[in-house]
Design brief:
The complex is a heterodimer of chains A (167) and B (273).
Chain A (H helix, E strand, L loop, with lengths): L1 H20 L17 H5 L6 H19 L4 H20 L16 H24 L5 H26 L4
Helix pairs in contact in A: 3-4, 4-5, 5-6
Chain B lengths: L1 H9 L1 H18 L4 H28 L1 H22 L2 H12 L4 E11 L5 E6 L12 E3 L4 E8 L4 E8 L4 E5 L5 E5 L7 E5 L12 E4 L11 E9 L8 E6 L8 E7 L2 H10 L2
Antiparallel strand pairs in B: 1-2, 1-12, 2-5, 3-4, 3-12, 4-5, 6-7, 6-9, 7-8, 8-11, 9-10, 10-11
Classes of the chains: A mainly alpha (167), B alpha+beta (273).
């Protein structure tokens, strides 16, 4: 278990660093930045300890808000997605949703992709909504959510594939 | 009492979520509170310290391009001086500057620039110890950039003009008609100009400059050119989009503008009912 947490937090630290220094500067189409740091919240063990996981979500979001000078959007989006994760995993991952490593083994490929997609799009929607904080900008919110989700999906799926434990 | 404890234990996840969510909202919404200011200062310090080494490396790699750009800028300024003034006039201008102009500038380097959010922030490598204070104006080589928001000793955060909370006082160069310039969040090179009455003639291509009505910027700093003008069927104001002269997505160096009369102006405004 200690080995798992050491590996997890090292990867989490590197992902946050990459997010702040690289992915936040991608600016695809002039407005789109992928949220690759979501790998942290997507791959964390699907255990019963949701209390600790909500804290992890808060810490991740708050740290990013401080480092990227965004006022609370990351925090709110990460806490929300951490709270909703059991619902999303139960809905998307099928019968084995409660396996700790369901994102890597024991579940169908299609179920994992659905789980990934839902986690990303819900997070991005909340993030953009809080960032703009105005329904008058719904068009932009919708456009940014879709574009960011799509790019994040591709990059996160690739990252998760690289992190997959080799047999 | 027991059932309260039971309920708390049973719904602990939801309660924790509500608590942290509210904390996030407070962090997001407290626009002028003391705590937000303190948090912003701390985050500015951390953020600045993290971005500085990577930006130093990037600056080093960009030196050739940067030198070429500065040389070109220098050349343009020299040509302007040679075109506009004869020697006697240049000497008179230098004397006037020594006597103390109303504005002074502090050069700074951008270490982080965002333009994809609704409220974009720029970090610069000069802070309180370099004489930078809150609400100083910031301009780039070609036009206005933003307004200083927070300062730590070595860094300052600047509210970019690509920030939906900012309104800039602007006027037409050729007619002195004033309006408010703001960003709608759509494109990083386009802003909207409001409060221009239809009784004033406006053409596509008209140049827009700072109005000088605020203490942030001197009058006459170029902002952009009118891109589209729509005259509404009802209502007395144009709908105008302005294309910015500065490329806000490609900035390296800026000048922070100080106004020697700022405190006097603010004090006078506060005393005026």
């Amino acid at each position: 278990m200690i080995q798992y947490y050491t590996r997890f937090f090292t990867i989490a630290f590197l992902l946050l660093l990459f997010q702040v220094l690289v992915f936040d500067h991608v600016d695809l189409f002039g407005f789109s930045d992928p949220a690759v740091y979501l790998v942290i919240l997507i791959t964390y063990r699907l255990t019963q300890d949701q209390f600790g996981f909500i804290f992890l979500g808060f810490a991740t979001g708050f740290l990013l808000d401080l480092l990227t000078q965004t006022a609370g959007a990351h925090t709110i989006a990460c806490v929300s997605i951490a709270f909703m994760r059991p619902l999303i995993s139960r809905f998307a991952l099928g019968a084995n949703y409660d396996q700790p490593n369901a994102m890597f083994t024991g579940t169908l490929w299609t179920n994992r992709m659905l789980y990934l997609f839902l986690m990303i799009i819900i997070h991005q929607f909340i993030f953009t909504l809080v960032a703009y904080f105005s329904l008058a900008h719904f068009g932009i919110i919708f456009k940014q959510t879709l574009t960011n989700s799509l790019i994040s999906f591709i990059l996160i799926a690739t990252t998760i594939n690289l992190l997959q434990p080799r047999k | 009492m027991q059932w309260v404890l039971n309920a708390i234990i049973r719904y602990k996840n939801f309660l924790l979520f509500l608590f942290l969510f509210t904390l996030g909202l407070l962090f997001s919404g407290s626009q002028s509170a003391y705590h937000k200011s303190q948090l912003a200062k701390s985050s500015l310090f951390v953020s600045g310290a993290i971005h500085q080494p990577f930006d130093n490396l990037k600056s080093y790699l960009d030196l050739v391009e940067e030198n070429a750009q500065l040389a070109q800028e220098n050349n343009t300024l020299k040509n302007l001086v040679l075109e506009k003034f004869n020697k006697a006039e240049i000497l008179a201008l230098e004397e006037e500057n020594l006597a103390g102009p109303n504005y002074w500038s502090i050069p700074a380097k951008i270490i982080r620039n965002s333009f994809t959010q609704a409220r974009n922030i720029i970090l610069i490598d000069k802070g309180k110890s370099d004489g930078i204070t809150q609400e100083m104006g910031v301009i780039g080589p070609k036009g206005i950039i933003g307004i200083v928001n927070q300062t730590s000793n070595g860094y300052a955060s600047v509210l970019s003009i690509l920030n939906q909370d900012i309104k800039i006082n602007a006027k037409f160069k050729n007619s002195n008609v004033f309006g408010s310039l703001f960003w709608t969040g759509e494109s990083p090179n386009e802003m909207e100009l409001a409060d221009i009455s239809v009784i004033n003639p406006v053409q596509v291509g008209d140049t827009l400059v700072t109005g000088g009505m605020s203490s942030y910027f001197p009058e006459g700093i170029i902002i952009g050119k009118v891109n589209t003008v729509e005259r509404p069927n009802n209502g007395g104001y144009y709908s105008i989009t302005v294309e910015l002269i500065n490329n806000m997505t490609d900035l390296n160096y800026v000048y922070v503008i100080g106004n020697r009369n700022r405190e006097e102006i603010i004090e006078l405004l506060e005393r005026t009912p």
